## 1
Amino acid sequence: MDNIAGTKSPLTWAVHISVVVLVLMWVLPTFGLLVSSFRTGDQIVSSGWWQALTTQEQQLSPIRIAGEAVAKDGAFVIEGRLFAGTGTVLSRWGTSSIEPVAYEAGQVADLGEGVALTVAADGAYALTSAASLEGVRLPRVFATAATPPEFTTKNYDTVLFSPLAGQTVFQAFMNTATVAIPATIIPILIAAFAAYALAWMEFPGRALLVAFVVGLLVVPLQLALIPLLQFHNWIGIGKGYLGIWLAHTGFGLPLAIYLLRNYMVGLPRDIIENARVDGATDFQIFTKIILPLSFPALASFAIFQFLWTWNDLLVALVFLGTGNDQQVLTGNLVNLMGSRGGDWEILSASAFVSIAVPLAVFFSLQRFLVRGLLAGSVK
Amino acid sequence: MNPAFQAMLTIGFGVGGCLLYFYSSNIFLDKVLYPATGPHAGRNINRANQIRPWLFLMPALVALGLYLAYPVFATAWLSLTQDAPGNTRVFVGFANYAQMMTEDKFWESVRNNMLWLVVVPAASTAFGLLAAQLTDRIGWGNIAKSLIFMPMAISFVGVSVIWKLVYDTRDEAVAQIGALNAIWLKFDGGIWSVLFVKVVPGLALLAFVAALVWVAWGLIRDLRKGGFWGLALRGLGLAVLAWLIWSSVSGLWGLVSAVPPYGVAQTWLTLPFYNNFFLMAVLVWIQTGFAMVILSAALRGVPEDTIEAAIIDGANPFQIFFKIKVPQIMGTIVVVWTTITIVVLKVFDIVLAMTNGQWQTQVLANYMYDKLFRANDWGVGSASAMVIMLLVTPILVWNVYNVRKEMR
Amino acid sequence: MKTRLIVSTGVLALIAGGAFAQDLKFPVGEGAFNWDSYKAFDDATNLEGTEISMFGPWRGEDQVLVESMLAYFTAASGVKVNYSSSENYEQQIVIDTQAGSPPDVAILPQPGLIADLASKGFITPLGAATETWLKENYAAGESWVSLGTYMGADGAAALYAFPYKIDVKSLVWYSPDNFTDAGYTVPETMEDLKALSDQIVADGGTPWCIGLGSGGATGWPATDWVEDMMLRTQPADVYDQWVKHEIAFNDPAVVAAIDEFGAFAKNDKYVAGGTAAVASTDFRDSPKGLFTSPPQCYMHKQASFIPSFFPEGTELGTDADFFYFPAYAGKDLGKPVLGAGTLAFITKDGPGAQAFIAWLQTPIAHEIWMAQSGFLTPLKSANGDLYANAALKKQGEILTNATTFRFDGSDLMPGAVGAGTFWTGMVDYVSGKTAQEVADTIEQSWPK
């Protein structure tokens, strides 16, 4: 909407602001996940992710005194620190869940039976006891403290390197790429030919075939699994890579044909007519004119098909197998969550680990999503 | 054989095989079967041209027939049969369908699916179009597009955690981990609360009603066009719009008169009726990226000359958008709308993971999943799958209509 | 550039790879294990070169544990085991058996599902010898045999599944320090438990954390509550009739049991977050309320697997402990215990699969896992001293001393109810419906 006169209109500012609002609305939830992936599981369920970004004053969960008793000045002393990092400032503390704010920082509390405890503002504690502390249950400290933002890369460590996943992340990436790349490339070619026929060739039943293809988009995946696995077993390819490539090709064809056809219909009729007049066969027109001009549509379908096969787990489990060495990345990530799931911090980190490749694919294919190529070709 | 090596071989064979098939079949057709020379040249060329489309279509049709059409028939057969002892099935006619229609949850699913079908494709396409248009000419457009596209790239487990961190509810006394509740608890009934909880949503709802009235007016004006089908579809559209306008107006009234429960953490996903919209927000959030990518390519394809001519004629940006750009990309809008509609018909993991169809949020695809793998009732499950597939018929009709229009 | 990328990744792929092999965790011959049984099995079984595929519900850390046990099986018999798992294992096993590519052995926690597979002829019966062995060697052997006995495709009842790893469910978890701080004692009877709950409310606290959320399985913790209540208000054979549908689901006995659960869950003052939060709180998040400051609740009823969801660093025995969910002193029904577990069955017969079932009959197969964590067994000849910690030993004793032991009812009921309407019915109950309404709906949904 550049105006010809050349001055920046207020409309441009409105556009920029609206885009910022739109982007913020879409990105904030994901940003929450990003922040959560750097927190521990306990942190995620006890405070909101926005609170992790600033210093928060809160009542912490009880921390039990731990350490070796040292003989000092005729008494047994256990010293230590409540908080692992620095920067936490304790304001009040207590030893009982009923009175968590009984004492101030630095105050000495008498816990009875000759035991005394003091906790300083930086979390350093000293427990003194006249008698031996062998076998005695040590007290807990309830601290009210201002904790600075605390982040950890442990989740990414677990996702990338934990042996609990069943195989290395690298192996999983390789397996997933092995599934995704052929499953993206093969449907494109088959669909391109079909789309051209449906877009530019005249034959009876064309409209109905288009409807047939669209209708097949709606077939629920779960119902195709058993008949197709039976079929694969029957023809002898069983579970394996060939099976999953064929399955993904079949499942991805309707969308491919639909998107490609729609794009090809929009190509200028004149180019094709002129080529026909010049004596080109349909095959030549297709390979030399249509296919190169359709790159934007091919690229956009490639993005979506790659995404779908990359993030898919169900088709992989059914057609590829559940064994560890055939596992795809999503399978790895499910394994890390253990038998009952619920590790929100692992989920967050794994979501970002697995998003890296699809986003890279999206970025690299973005430059094809321009149709400026067409503008000059008619003339 | 090492899988990566196998993959490269397969790509090579697949691509090469395809090209070989197409090339050789075309050669065969044009040179051997119906050569364009000799006494019957004219007739041969015609025959060749009649057969050629099917050559181009054959691999796709084989794959589609096997991988998608065959399961449809298998499903239809399953829906007409029931489990019998010893892993066999016995034909029972429409008994499964009859049983399915007696279940409350089925009708609830149908109603909810209708709601989803009205809201999600429209919202995703609208936001996608908006995003595509706005990011078109600005310098950081690519980055903005990638950020709006990102939700599509996140796997479903990531999405479920993201929205758990938005909708979660805790007791008011402890810290909230759900963003929505954290914002809600900040409202206390004062001036800002009235502004954000009543005025802004009220204005948005009014704008929505105005847009609906404008669309309805367009439909009424063109009511006579298109013959019988045009009248029927427009009538249906008007009925839907009337219902939407009615519910929006009563919603507006409810908004003004109700006393919101300030200071009480809401369990968003259990609020009757509104929880559907919270679930829909997740799908709209994801699908907008899809709409945006496709519509962005289409917008870029609108010839510059038409736009320049309009600017010279003094059109403002809004007129250019609605009167020039949108009509030219209408075909793509149909494609995007159709695809998202079909995605909506198939969506079940959002509902499964967040509410499992409880609190009146059940949808057909989740109902089908429940019947298939929990209740192990493949008869009723397949019947509900057939219903899902039938629901796509209006979209099919619209597409056939569009294709016929292009052909003219 | 693209080809170079493809080639280089291809080369890397050829170099990469590698499995995580398992060595034997405890050296053979050392420790209080039953090495005689190991040697006897070793001598008797020699199937070098055989490979079997196994499908189970254990992933992550649990997978490491089961593979440590399987390493011994491989060492003793020569059979290589390819263990795998899947999140939606019910879906996976149904698809694999129906499509004709089943694993050799499967281990699953749902007897109802296994019964379904047996009736379709997908499972091989284990034979009369195994049946006798179970009767003689498992505590309360008869009930374990009936747990694994189903109707086959031929219409005859036979033993199809071998119970292997058990979870005890009738446990209430609490923080001993919080109890001491407030001056509470562990209740021994249900009447005392209710009095304690009232006491906590009177003192200004909240007694219970209850969370039913579980994604697609939301509602299942409530079924455990109702089943435990059923065992504490009715004799054990009424429970059996309920599970087998010999009495209707909306029988007054069942409705009363549901209301017993409601006495806890539908009392706004009893539950952290109030009744509204019960159905929407995730079951994995709710026990954390025991350890906050101030404590959101004092007690949480859940099965023996829940410690893996306690905050990191929580020590069992010091920071968290459990007591038996008590029975009514007034009713004379003993100390019933509700449990769940997994059963192993053969989906593709072969010498390797048969050898695995024979392996499960040796004490060593149980002891390897017992000595590590999270494993309970009713096998009488397994050495109870080998339990990894005092908590497990306590649970093991609850298991062996139970006057009545019953398996989780919802796992025994047909899928449409046990994994469907029972769960959703409980959510409806907590969200406001009456017990009678909910029981009627569930009764209607029972497959004819």
## 2
Amino acid sequence: MLSEVRFEGVHKIFGTETAVEDLNLRVNAGEFLVLVGPSGCGKTTTLRMLAGLERPSYGRILIGDKLVNNVSPRFRDVAMVFQSYALYPHMNVYDNLAFGMRARGAAGSVIAQRVKETAEVLGLAQLMKRRPSELSGGQRQRVALGRALIRQPQVFLMDEPLSNLDAGLRVQMRAELSRLHERFRVTTLYVTHDQVEAMTMGDRIAVMNSGRLQQVDAPETLYDNPANIFVAGFIGSPRMNFVRGSLTTTRGVAAVEFLGVTTPLSSRAKLTAEAADGAVTVGLRPEDLMWRRAAPPESTLTLSAEVDVVEPMGHEAYVTAVCAGETVTSRFPPRSGVRTRERIELALNPARLHLFDARSGNTILQRPVAGGAELPRSVGEARVDESEEGRSERQHEPHTRSAQSRAEEIS
Amino acid sequence: MSAVEARRAGAEKLIVVPYSRVSPAAVATNMILILLGSFFLLPMLWMVFASVDSNPDWAIKLPTPTLANFTDVLGRADAISSFRSSLILAGTTTVVTTVLAVLAAYPLSRMHIPFKRAFMLAILFASGLPVSMLIVPVYQMYVYFGWLDSLYTTALFLAASSLPFAIWLMKNFIDAVPAELEQAAAIDGASTARILRELVLPLTLPGIAVTAIYTFINAWGAFIIPFVLTYSPDNQPGPVEIYNFMGSHGLFKFGDLAVFSLLFSVPVIVLYLFMSRYFSGAFNFGGAVK
Amino acid sequence: MAVAAGLGPRLDRERFQWSSLAMLAPALALLGVLFIFPVLYSGYLGFTDLALVGSRSRDYQFTGLDNVTRMLSDYVFIKSSWLTIIFVVGSAIVGQTVLGMALAILLRNALVSVRAVIGSIVIVAWVLPEITVALVWYAFSQAGGTLSILLGHTDTNFLVAVPMLIVSLANLWRNVAFSMLVFSAGLRNLPTEVLEAAEVEGASAWRRYRMVILPLLKPTIVTNLLLVTILNLSEFTLIYAMTQGGPGIETMTLPLYVYQEAFVFHQLGYGTAISLVLVLIGALFSLLFVRASRSQV
């Protein structure tokens, strides 16, 4: 059966280092949740605690309704894909796949059948007699995946499984992992430092930084409404521009001044309670900061800037320019012809501004989500903001029938 | 001439740097090694030549070939029985030491044990203790328990004296197995016993072989322990027997002695060759104490 | 939900696993009976007048520091201590380390065939049973033996003329492979980029050795020095089989003297006391080893 996973007030302390601090997170049954953050942010520790390889210092971890704090990995019914794959080097592909089922005492004929099925799903059927050392990186990756898939566990754990693949293969495996999840719908916690993987694969994304959970949301929501400067800067490439600004309210109308221009805030955006007049940090995504000549009519603000560096990417170009003493990056069409030290005009849609409190770094502007993208892609109604603690008890949505019955066939 | 000019000149006339295969330094290196090598070879060669010489003496010389020395030694009951004794002694020691070392090394490498570091230091210290220190109290104990003159009880003491180093060696080999493999197996549902049997043992097989062979080679050559703890002629292992041969100066038969030593040396040389390809790892003492 | 303060006791304290004890137990039992107990027992016996035969073999007494005072006035003991130090310093510390490192470096730069053949010969010398080494070196150094012919003194028995030198050489001959292997491993583990950088900078071979290789090998050298010291300190078989400590007491190192006192002169108590001195020296070096390995990183 499929199970949800809950972390309740979980801490993990190594010596004097707090790796994970007061983590409250719920992975819904059947959901693909990506845990993303820079290295050392505590994401792998979180995963290892769920696997049972580390025990939490404080707090509770539940799989389904079962408290697993003191359950050894053996009895947790989770499967894990390691970054290094951790294939058994002395066993061939068949034995690697069969190991877990043998350990759980499955009958020989059942094992043979399941190994055959799994190998076919992953295209490993021709490689059964090979040892890990005789496989390519991509093939090893598939075996590691197969070793997890074959057991039909309650929860899949993946620790940067694609980081050892070359770029082309990574894109291919990314799609394949998504396909496999569509097919089997096993609750999955996927750890990565790569925001592209997070954005493309996750039903929801949980962003961590220095041991603390920053925000949990569907990819587009996370992108459009980052909860704080960290999330805003971490998600999106090239990085969001942050410039100094100041907020003023006159006769109930809020306006923000930055880069030498002043603009009233869009009526559809709402300021949060934390917002106050004074210094703020203004966030501008490079794709919202366009070349005047290529900008659509909504981009009503015009800024004058001097080009510093032009980085042509082929299908577009990143132009770093100095504007009112601040350096900003802007996304240009290819072959724009602008050169270093040339004066240019940049255009900006005021509705696309992000505002953050200058001191706390929290967002103070709740923007409307564009184009109905807030609907999560695979799990109905999974969008819950869990960035503040204690709000994880709300949602519980039945997962797809077919996935459940498929999983029950085997377990 | 500036650098640019020099390059230009070089481009016009292709400069061919003479590449000599034999530099004087290389010749010297190899010559010194060959000289040193003969210093190591000559004493051994005496044994080989004398063993097939019908009239050997102390000096190394080309033999007048004969197999008489071999038939002579192989016909001697005391020579045969000393091989048997050595085999029992070294075999028992090896089995006991290896089994106990593997069992002890696993928890020392992988599990949480209080005072583990102190324990490993004690093990290291113990492997440096001279046997001559233990021999008197052990002799006293063996007298008390009536264990003297038995190959098996003697092997037990040999095992105890070789165990600290064997544990230390074995722990290093187990440390080298990535912990992630065992974690993967644990998540796969394997019990500790299964992890030991199906992962740790196969993956450390080369290490186990090195430990076993190292122990065997030492036990095979052990002299003072059986010399003190056994006395009946039947229980004398090879080294003691060879010593007795040497000791009986009047009857010094060079040929027989050479054959005996040669035959006695063959098993350990063969075993060493077998394990040598795994052995280099055992000499990485870089981070000996962690 | 937990609050940051007052979280209660830590949930991840390491638990003792009884299975670890079960796996350690057999080794601990054997070591306890035949290693730890004898060590402690010898700590007692060393201060008694236990004898191998006669009335003192059963009815022995604690004699306090009698054995120590006896040692201090024992001419043989003092000579024996000197011989041990000469043996260890000459054969192990200087001989084995210098020759071992020289062999390791030379072999690294030698022709493949030379490396294979010479390396194997040196290692075979190490693998041979000690008694065999004793025999071949006994033969090598006799009057009329190979050494006397090479040196042109066919009527000199070198084992009588320079006994300490010969047993030291024999011991060096046998054990140098150990140091050679340790240094080969150490050299293999050196970062090649550093050596290449030195070469690119035009440093001569000697300079590279002195300024780059030697400092980088320092941890290996320290480890090797202490291991060979401890191993050689207790060398018995080779010397005993070649000379029995003779001629006279010219090669009577401490391990041989322990054996002689205990099992030839039947003074088990005094013999044990001497062995304790050996242990003291060994312990001193072990402590040095731990110190050195700690300061390495």
